[in-house]
Design goal:
Length: 308
């Protein structure tokens, strides 16, 4: 456990929190996911298109080298990116978890290499339901908006998970828990533009969430009105106005600016690999390369909205 303690100490320097537990305890989390599907609480089409084959429970279970799972939560502030489109400069919001993905991942890989690798242990990338694990391990609590909240960080954090051959002791797993303040507060329910938040359950109606459409491809449905759009990717409404995030920076940190020439290249849907190398790196470092082909649509929607 000294290896994990060293890892945790280094992450704490960045304001992060971490937990480690034996892989066998994933069984409870996997059973929860299965139950949500069988009970039809999850939208069936959404589950089949986005979740059915997304998680690697079987892969982790069948790998004899893997002994433990490590989950970390790192502060991830609201940020802004400036574009110069049609001669108008606007700073567009980017919710937590998006624009610092590369930075946080690189930092954790560096720390694990220094601590795990040099001590003869190995780490393995894996895909597992991080929010659910954060709540079950006691790291976080759910908000009514189905987003997790960590003490001191609110919901402005990014979760990172990996598997390791480092052994660990079992921990006490908890059931899904909602923050006490959510029992009476209905801010997110009232403000959600697509009415994806349900007062009768923790689980979000993800198939109605604006994030689902902003991250997806194709035209927005007719029922998503222009005034709904608020972020370059995802949606920030339920987090920005949540009382549990009162201590977080709601204005956003300006990450970078794109010139008119750079913005025009993005807006004309120039293939990513044909962009100038410097522009490719700029987009990649912000982690928005993942959504590159959706950026023209989203930027246009935001500019149309902000002009009103």
């Amino acid at each position: 456990m000294k290896i994990f303690e060293k890892y945790n100490e280094q992450l704490q320097e960045y304001g992060a929190v971490s937990v480690i537990f034996p892989k066998e305890q994933l069984q409870k989390i996997e059973a929860e996911m299965t139950q949500l599907y069988k009970s039809q609480i999850l939208d069936q089409d959404f589950y089949k298109s986005c979740l059915e084959d997304a998680f690697e429970f079987k892969k982790v279970k069948e790998n004899p080298q893997i002994r433990s799972i490590v989950l970390s939560g790192t502060p991830s502030p609201l940020s802004k990116i400036e574009f110069d489109y049609q001669g108008i400069k606007k700073q567009l919001l980017v919710p937590p978890i998006y624009s610092d993905r590369e930075m946080i991942t690189a930092r954790i890989k560096k720390i694990t290499k220094q601590i795990f690798d040099t001590n003869g242990y190995h780490t393995f990338s894996t895909i597992l339901p991080k929010k659910l694990i954060a709540v079950y391990t006691g790291m976080a609590l759910y908000g009514r908006n189905n987003i997790i909240y960590v003490k001191g960080l609110g919901s402005f954090l990014r979760l990172t998970i990996f598997a390791t051959d480092l052994p660990s002791d079992p921990i006490q797993l908890k059931d899904s828990q909602l923050m006490d303040r959510c029992q009476k507060c209905q801010s997110c329910i009232k403000l959600c533009p697509t009415q994806a938040i349900d007062k009768n359950r923790i689980l979000l109606h993800a198939e109605k969430c604006l994030t689902f459409f902003n991250e997806g491809r194709g035209l927005f449905p007719d029922w998503i009105y222009p005034q709904f759009h608020n972020s370059l990717v995802g949606c920030i409404i339920c987090q920005k106005y949540c009382p549990a995030n009162k201590d977080q920076n709601k204005e956003g940190i300006l990450k970078t600016s794109f010139t008119k020439k750079e913005t025009d290249l993005i807006m004309t849907n120039e293939p990513f690999d044909q962009l100038p190398q410097e522009l490719q790196k700029k987009i990649h470092d912000l982690s928005i390369h993942i959504y590159y082909d959706r950026l023209p649509r989203n930027i246009q929607a935001l500019y149309s909205n902000l002009e009103k």
